[in-house]
Every structure is written in structure tokens, then in C-alpha cells.
Amino acid sequence: MNAKKMFLGLLDTIVKVVFIIFVAMLIVKYAKVAYDYGYHIFNQTAVSSGTGRTVSVTVKDGDTSKEIGEKLFGVGLITDKTLFKLQEMFSEYHGMEKAGTYELSTTMTPEEMLAVMSGGEKSGETSAKEASVEETSEEETSEATEENSEDVNGG
């Protein structure tokens, strides 16, 4: 009788330890998944770099972010439908997507695609804005350099 109680006590302890290990493994696994999603929500990357390829995507009136994500995934513009839905939810363009046909590229991040689909900017406008900012910065830098050289030379 004493041996039977000891065996059942040992079996009970083993089951508890196995259960705790199993729960710990699940926590670690899903913590990694949660971290990965959280990281990629705010650190968005494009599907490809370089020239990429341009794809036409039609968004219908009333399409949800899930449906838009499925369309983008289907044509290879994003790598994860669920991640796109989360990125849209946390972006400044949440719920602002407009119906229409858009030219999107594999070199665009999900945030850039959302900006185009919400009417915030067109595909080519970003580079023009950036170019004007760079030109202004270069002019300001050269003017500041000239002023500094005059000050140093006693001007």
C-alpha cells in the first residue's frame, strides 16, 4: 500500500512537471510570434528592393483591410495578410482607403501602399518631395559653409 501511494505521488509530480514544461514551451513559442509581429508592424519592409515590379490593384468601395490585404498578398505585394491588417490598424491611414485602381510596386512598404490608397500621396510624388528637400538642404549647407569661411578669413 505504501509503495502504491509513493508511485501515485511520483506519477502526480511527473505529470505536473511535464504540464509546466509544456505551458512554458507554449509561452516561449507564442512570445516569439508576438514579438515578430510587433517588430514588423513598426519596422516595415518592402517585398523587394531595387526596381521591383509594378502591379495594378483595384480597391472596391467598402473593402476591409482584410480584403485589401488578401488582394495585395495575391499579387505578391505583401508577405503576410494578417501582418498587413495589423499594420493598417496601427497606421495613420486606418480606415481611409478609397475605392479605385492603384499602381503599387513591390519596392513600396505597406505604409507607402496605404498612403497611396488613401489618397495621401501618389506613387511618384514622394521622390519629388524628397528631391526638393535634398536640394534645399544642399543649398543651405553651401551657404552656411560660405558664411563660416568668411568669418574664419576675417570677413
From TrEMBL:
UniProt keyword list: Cell membrane, Cell wall biogenesis/degradation, Lyase, Membrane, Transmembrane, Transmembrane helix
Gene3D superfamilies the UniProt entry points to: Endolytic murein transglycosylase
Source organism, top-level taxon: Bacteria
Composition bias, Basic and acidic residues: 122-132
Acidic residues bias locations: 133-155
GO MF, any single term: lyase activity
Cited InterPro entries: MLTG-like
Transmembrane annotation, as ranges: 6-28
Keyword flag Cell inner membrane: no
Region (Disordered): 114-155
Keyword hit for Lyase: yes
GO biological process: cell wall organization
Name of the protein: UPF0755 protein
